[in-house]
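Bug #77: duplicate submission created two jobs. Keeping one. Sequence:
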Amino acid sequence: MSRTPIIDFINEYNRSGTVRLHIPGHKGRDLTGAEMLDITEIRGADSLFEADGVIAESERNMSALYGSARTVYSTEGSSLSIRAMLAAAREYKGELKVAAARGCHKAFLDGCILLGLDPVWIRPEGETKGICSAKVTAEDVRRALDEDPEINAVYLTSPDYYGNMADIPGISRVCHSRGALLLVDNAHGAYLKFAGSQHPLDNGADICCDSAHKTLPALTGTSLLHISASAPKELAACAKEAMALFASTSPSYVLLCSLDRCVSELERDYAQRVREMCAELEIIKEQLSAAGWELIGDEPMKLTVSALAKGLSGRDTAEELRRRGIEPEYADELCCVMMPTPCLAAGELQRTASALTDIIRSAEGNAPAEPLPPLPRPEKALSPREAYMRPHRRIPIDEAAGRICARGALSCQPSVPIIVGGEIFDEETVKILKRYSFFEADVVE
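Kept job's structure:
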C-alpha cells in the first residue's frame, strides 16, 4: 500500500510524456511551482466524490490514522464539510431538527439556509462574552433537549475560536441517551488526535470535520470529514453524496496532493512534535499568566490572551505584536488569538512569549478597559432561510432597532454572527455591533 498514492500517480503521469489534451489550460507548464501537480479527473486519477482508486486509498490511510469508520477529503475547506455534515445527518434522520451552540461559523447557517433547517439555539446558563465563544455544557444540552423533544441532532463548535473546548464525552452521553446525533465542528482541532486523544471522534461525536490546514502541515482549503466507527453506518454510506451536493465538480488535485502528503508527515514525526509543542506551550502559558495575562480557553495548542484589566484590548495587543514583527491569527475587543504549530521555526514561540511579556509589563498602571457587555439574545421572527429569501436592503446600523435581520452580521474572520438572519435588532444588539465596527445592517423589507 502506498502512503502517498495520489502523489505517486501524478508523478508517474508527469514522467509518461502524455500529451495533455484535457483541462487545466496550463498543461503542466511550471508557472508557480504547483502546475505539475494540478491535473483533473483523468483515467486513473480517481474521482473525489465517487472515489474507488488512489483518492479512496489516500482517504483510507487518513481514516486509519484517526480511527474513523470513514474519512473523506474536502478541497473547499471545512465550510464544505460543515454543510455536508448537516446534509448527511438529514439524509439519515429524514427530518432533521438541530440544536446548536450559538458561536457557530457562517457555514453552519449557510447549510441551514440551503437545507431549509431552522436551528434551535442552545443558550448557556452563564453570560457569554466575546463573539467567538461557543462553549456549552452537557446540562445546557440536556435542558435544550428537554424543552424540545423533536430535536434529533446537536451541533457544537469545539474548540471555538478562542480555544474553549466543550465536554464532548458528557454531551455525547446526553445526545445518545435521547437518540440525537452529535455533530462537531472541530475545524481548529485536527491535531487533537495526536495530543492525548482529545479529538471528538475519541469522545463520542458521531460526525465531525477538521480543517487540516489550520493546525496540520497542509495547504489552505484542505479539510477532513470524519464519521465515527460507532456512528450509524448510514452516515458513512452517504458522506460522499452529501459533500457532492455542495461541492465543485472540479476539486483541486494540488490540495488532494497536500492531504496525501499530510498522511505521511503524520505517520513520520508530526504527531510527536505536536505533543512537544503542547508541552512547551503549557510552560509558556504559566509564565504569561504569572506576568499578568489572562489566558482564555483550554485548547492545548492555541494561545489566547486578554488584558482588559490593564487597559489593553485584543486589538491593542495585536498591534503591539505587529510592531515586533509577529502576526496573530485574530484579535477583537476581548482578546488576541495565536495559533502556533510544530512548523514554527526554532525560537519563534519563545520570541512571541518574550514580546507578550514586554507588552504586559508596559501596560502596568493603565486604567482598566471598559468591560464587554454580555452578548444579546435577540428575539426570532423568521427562520434564517425565510429571512434570506425575503427582499432586503442595507441601512445604517443606528436605524436597525426593531427591524428583522436579513443577513447575519459577521466579519471574516472569524465568520461568527452576532445576530442571525430572522432575528430582530434591539438597542443592545446595535450597541454591541457598533463596538465590533458594524455600521450598516441588512434588514428585511
